[in-house]
Amino acid sequence: MTSAITEAEISILVDTFYAKVRDDRDIGPIFNAIVGDWPHHLATLKDFWSTILLTTGRYKGDPMMTHLQLPLDPDHFTRWLDLFSETAHEVLTPSHASLAIAKANRIAQNFQAGIAFQKSRRP
Fold first, then answer.
1. Three-state SS across 60-105?
2. How many whole angstroms separate alpha carbon 76 and alpha carbon 121?
3. Cβ atoms of 34 and 66 closer than 8 Å
4. Residue ranges per domain, the chain?
5. pTM for the full predicted model
6. Cβ(101)–Cβ(84) under 8 Å?
7. Which CATH class is domain 7-121?
8. SS3 2
9. What is the pLDDT of residues 4-49, one digit of tens each?
10. H or E stretch including 52?
11. CA–CA distance from 60 to each of 46, 47, 117 (Å)?
């Protein structure tokens, strides 16, 4: 049986991944424009991923509504997922990387569906 991902691994994943996001020429400007306090945001993201990967329930926000406000298109999600996958493989064991990547893909699919639905309702 594989051991569960740890909070320390989640922290390393989030810190490493979002350092790449902030520096990325495609998606960095989108996130840097709306995140005023990266240390606070990273703490929130660690709570989010802890809730997703360990079912801790620490995250209490509404990420879908937050992302619906951003100017995101499918290419942005592809880039986000590529960076996430690359980072997960760099900092996690193979089984933990696979788990995190699978969850990230489901989240991205849900967000993209939500954004597409919102756009379809606009006049």
1. CCCHHHHHHCCCCCHHHHHHHHHHHHHHHHHHCCHHHHHHHHHHHH
2. 21
3. no
4. 7-121
5. 0.90
6. yes
7. mainly alpha
8. coil
9. 999 999 999 999 999 999 999 999 999 999 999 999 999 999 999 9
10. helix 38-54
11. 12, 9, 23
